[in-house]
Specification:
The structure is a homodimer. By secondary structure, chain A is mainly alpha-helical. The first copy, chain A, has 4 domains: 227 residues, Clc chloride channel (Orthogonal Bundle); 226 residues, Clc chloride channel (Orthogonal Bundle), CATH 1.10.3080; 75 residues, CBS domain Like (Alpha-Beta Complex), CATH 3.90.1280; 108 residues, no CATH class. Chain A is 55% helix and 5% strand. Chain A contains 25 helices and 10 strands. The first copy, chain A, has a 3-stranded mixed beta sheet. Chain A has a 3-stranded mixed beta sheet with strand order 8-9-10. In chain A, strands 1-2 form a two-stranded antiparallel ribbon. Chains A and B meet through helix 7, helix 8, helix 16, helix 17 and strand 8 of A and helix 7, helix 8, helix 16, helix 17 and strand 8 of B.
Chain lengths: 701, 701
């Protein structure tokens, strides 16, 4: 409600709080990101140490049992958390956050329980050795943190704070959540600029210049928190926490001059990335639809699915390296070879001393370390082409079947792993024909596959540059990304858009569809319209609230309050509930605005937090009260946005989307009819809705 | 006009052309950027060589004469170009491009003549030794190139191409110009990601996701063009073109752990940058207002002003180094010391062999080289504190008095120079108390001063990182930028916003002013409204076009064509002119739409290029024709955006701004009156307009 302007002190409170909140979001997201990393590194590190120690003693079967046992145990815990406590925490979370910021208030996406499950589920899931990342979940976590802080605790748990009333509206909450998502990316990749760009390019539907400035501040805080915590850990205070956490890969190959063959290779990698990426999206979509059927049957099925995927993954990780031969350690290395411990480039596995198993170095490692190994540029013959091929095939398939099971699972890491392995294959195949390093080829492969699946450009580019800390590769990465995105866009949409669509979320695109040009706003207005008089009988309102699910009702002034019936404005369901709950009814049909206003404070009508606020069931209205009247004017928004019924639907859609509306009143062109024709909502602009009404006009998809 | 949908082949033509154009913009901007650099390096290099050779022979007076003579000559050429051919080319150009993309069609901002003068004027101006940069002008140049390509040559010079008809509309042109501006930044700083972010943060008023992708492509092309051309020049094919062009500074000091003193120093630098930056903006504003008075008197005064500033600059550059003492060359250097030639860290000046003059190394160099010297981290005692103080004072003052004279002049370089020098002073003063390098302090100083004047955050940060190729400094740069921007925002607005305001351009802010909440749309609608009937007498239209300067007229259907008077839509001045020129008049008052449509092609109504298209004076209407009628329906936009007169002005302003409208129809709330109350245009939302109408409501600024 805009109808009360604020005092100076309130404006100060507001600005101060907004910056404090942003600061807190940065701090907590940084802490959570760090905690995630420590958790994964320690749990997975323990598991890998156990396995490799058993293998050193030659107890191969026990080693497998320990390895698979740990994996299944962690996986089951994660799945149980997801299935029983917060089903919304499964998956990447990026599509959900994207949909939320598009204006879709899906239930429990950002609830505190989701946050908790997301954090612990993600740690357990990644530790369980799945081919999943913790990056997508970090974004969701950041958004949850922002939501939790912004609403001042949860009303459900009776933790709330008075000052935070200012943030109980859509706009401020959206801003905070955008900051949270950016902080999540920044914490996941240690990429502050990349986080801002990611939020801008992929997450946010509405962007304001002020937001750039605010997200930037948040990600800067995250970067500083992480930096100081890592400094703290260097002293060995964080258990097994090693280099692997908080990935920062050094691809230090100074890019020398590249020749024509290199450019051709780049183009080829780009095209390949586009093709593989769109195929990946297609398969992920199919698998998700299959899994959706299984998951619907109940928590037990969800957990069973997770367990079977976990066993399959363990078999691959432990079984496939047996097919790879032992390679003698190269001489003159600074690193230890073979590495006995937890991570490292040269895993001993079953090999004799002085030899290493290259496939085990990729499979029997945390995903972060595997990526580091793939990106490493010191020893270009470190991995056999056959090894890389097996690894690529394994990761590609496992990535597809893993996404969609009931654990928090990010898509970034599987995609980077697969991309980096085919990039490195390519680099090895070219050999000395190319001036570029195999590590660089891995990076370019990862870029191309990221471009092919996620279809982002600038943000991926910047994130990769921040990850590898080498700006000179910029033009090469840009080129590869552009090609792979262009190729993949021919076949299908980006993976996040696909998931949003598959989940049936009514996502509003930024542009209008061409067929909307042939329709006018009046054509798609739905059904018989319910409207209230300026002073309405309580019974009518209760009835309307009970039997419809509309969130907005037009209010029409009728004689004797005006000469002719005219549109007074729009009233929201939630405000009606608050008003009815206040019980300021009158016996007669009279204006009683001042009376009502004195009773309420403006913030009583503010949007509640994650809870649904006042529910219809909470209302207690007596029979007698049902016959009384109430003046709706005080809670009516008297200047709703309107369009004439003959307005082109395309133009109405752009208006609706650009201004971020929830209701758009359609008024008649001719005078002398009812003063409102209908109300357009988000659903009226959906492809499915229009194609039901006008099947001949809308192209099939 | 949206009223004809396109055929498949046309859509293909459109997409193909759009990408081709973007490619061409990237290529040409890259080439122009390179040409600029070669020009500056060779001309300024020749001048500096001449001067230093004369000095080596001890002919100090002749050296000064040659130096000052060259400077004045180049300056006069640049000023003459600006004053006589394209006055719009003076200044940075960034505010103008920003205003253009906000929807202000100021005359000749992007004309081909402006482009030419901008390129050559900028080369001459920078070569003349002014404290100006070529970066701002590069942005303007990129935008001009985009405009020129997008409109398919200039109609004025009869160069045009049929396919380009698709780009004769506001939206596509705006997209192309945004790409051009991004390409300009990318070419100026060799910062492709920075260019995209700069366009997003500072230049563009409307941003779409598709645009990110397109600007990114453009800047990638620019980066590749520049890279290959520099490779070509390494062979020595480009005259005196050396390292100085296409700045890329290596601040290779690995950032070690910083301590508390460092952080305090950073905060201090940030605050100082904010204070100095806002003072700078204030002084630039004052000086610009003074210069505006002088410049209005005619070209001769403009040139005289340029000449006097040039002489003053020459005196400073040549005179001040005499006050600095000679410093013995440090031993064990890889570079030659003193450097006799054109550029270098250790300028000989008047000193004996084995000594160098540190102030001359800054003043008697191109600006790019001076920045490189300030950023250099090899020898922390290279410059005396007193030297740096003199240089800072000189550059700060010269920067203020130089901006605003009639040459193309960028603000980036003066700001970076001044910032880097006080940063370095600070680094020297701290000495061994700090772990950070003096070169790094220079960089942070530059960042703080940039943040204090221009108030951008992410884009400056990324540009600086791309310039120095060192990502590890990211958190430090971010912190400094945030502090300086916050401090400076207390005092005044960013320098570009100030200039836009000073030039009186009606720039629409993204947010509504608070006082607009207390007004409704009907309150600010201006004056008696002129409207046409659906079928209107030619004489009335001609009269209206002649005696008003309105660009849009409402069309009202009256009986007998409809039952009651109702709003049919909006018709644009330019379309009316085309229609009248077609002379499809009828004797009677009848509908003749099909007749008219057959006569015109949709693209006849397309927005013309830089020219004004058909002018009113070109119309020849006989007395007899004046009495005839014409059907306006075919050219009427039948679904204009409308607001009810009781709509809050703040909401109307947001609608107007977000959708990028030029006209917004205000319709009455009550029926039974004229079907339109008025039309809101950009000017009706301006602070000045409203404060004239309602002085008591609007706070004074």
């Amino acid at each position: 409600q805009d109808w009360r302007s604020r005092k100076k002190v309130e404006i100060f409170q507001y600005i101060f709080l907004k910056w404090t909140l942003v600061l807190l979001i940065g701090l907590s997201t940084g802490l959570v990101g760090f905690f995630n990393n420590i958790g994964v590194e320690n749990i997975a590190g323990f598991k890998l140490l156990l396995t490799s120690n058993l293998m050193l003693d030659g107890k191969y079967f026990q080693a497998f049992a320990a390895f698979a046992g740990c994996n299944v145990f962690f996986a089951t815990c994660a799945a149980a958390l997801c299935a029983f406590i917060a089903p919304a925490a499964a998956g990447s979370g990026i599509p959900e956050v994207k949909a939320y910021l598009n204006g879709i208030d899906a239930h429990s996406i950002l609830a505190p329980s989701t946050l908790l499950v997301k954090i612990f589920g993600s740690i357990l899931g990644v530790s369980a050795g799945f081919v999943v990342g913790k990056e997508g979940p970090m974004v969701h976590t950041g958004a949850c943190i922002a939501n939790l802080l912004g609403q001042g605790g949860s009303r459900k748990y009776h933790l709330t704070w008075k000052w935070l009333k200012y943030f109980k509206n859509d706009r401020d909450r959206r801003d905070l959540i955008t900051c949270g998502a950016a902080a999540g990316v920044a914490a996941a990749f240690r990429a502050p600029v990349g986080g801002v760009l990611f939020a801008l390019e992929e997450i946010a539907s509405w962007w304001r210049s002020a937001l750039l400035w605010r997200t930037f501040f948040t990600t800067a805080i995250v970067a500083m928190v992480l930096r100081s915590l890592i400094q703290f850990c260097r002293g060995g205070n964080c258990g097994l926490f090693g280099q692997g956490g908080l990935i920062m890969f050094d691809v230090n190959s100074g890019v020398s001059n590249y020749n024509t063959i290199d450019v051709l290779a780049l183009i080829f990698i780009g095209v390949l990335g586009g093709l593989l990426g769109s195929l990946y999206n297609y398969l992920v979509d199919k698998v998700l639809r299959t899994y959706a059927v299984i998951n619907e049957r109940g928590p037990a099925f969800k957990i069973l699915l997770v367990m079977s995927v976990s066993i399959l993954t363990s078999c691959c990780s432990y079984g496939l390296p047996w097919f790879a031969g032992c390679i003698p350690c190269p001489v003159g290395l600074e690193e230890k070879c073979p590495t006995i411990g937890r991570s490292g480039n040269y895993k001993n596995f079953q090999c004799p001393a002085g030899h290493y198993n290259d496939l085990a170095s990729l499979f029997l490692n945390t995903n972060d370390d595997a990526i580091r190994n793939l990106f490493s540029s010191n020893n270009s013959n470190e991995f056999h082409i056959s090894t890389l091929l097996i690894f690529f095939a394994g990761v590609y398939c496992l990535g597809i079947i893993t996404y969609g099971i009931a654990i928090p699972s990010g898509l970034f890491i599987p995609v980077i792993l697969a991309g980096a392995s085919y990039g490195r294959i390519f680099g090895r195949a070219l050999g000395s024909l190319s001036n570029l390093n195999v590590g660089l080829f891995s990076l370019l492969g990862a870029a191309s596959f990221l471009g092919g699946t996620m279809r982002m450009t600038v943000s991926i580019c910047v994130i990769l540059l921040e990850l590898t800390n080498n700006l000179l590769m910029l033009p090469l990465v840009m080129l590869v990304l552009l090609i792979s995105k262009t190729v993949a866009d021919i076949f299908n949409k980006g993976v996040y858009d696909q998931i949003v669509k598959m989940k049936g979320l009514p996502f509003l695109e930024a542009h209008a569809e061409p067929f909307m040009r042939n329709l006018v706003a009046g054509d798609v207005c739905s059904g018989p319209l319910l409207s209230f008089s300026g002073v309405e009988k309580v019974g009518n309102i209760v009835h309307a609230l009970k039997y419809t699910r509309h969130n907005g009702f037009p209010v029409i002034d009728e004689p004797p309050f005006s000469e002719t019936p005219e549109l007074c404005g729009l009233v929201l369901r939630s405000h009606l509930l608050v008003l009815l709950n206040g019980k300021k009814f009158t016996k007669q049909r009279v204006l009683s605005a001042s009376n009502i206003l004195s009773r309420f404070h403006a913030f009583d009508f503010a949007k509640p937090g994650s809870g649904k606020g006042l529910k219809f069931e909470d209302l207690v209205i007596t029979e007698e009260e049902m016959e009384m009247y109430i003046d709706l004017h005080p809670i009516t928004n008297t200047s709703p946005y309107t369009v004439v019924e003959t307005m082109s639907l395309a133009k109405a859609a752009i208006l609706f989307r650009q201004l971020g509306l929830r209701h758009l009143c359609v008024v008649p062109k001719k005078t002398g009819r009812a003063p409102i024709v209908g109300i357009l909502t988000r659903h009226d602009f959906m492809h499915e809705h229009i194609s039901n009404l006008y099947p001949h006009l809308v192209p099939h998809k």
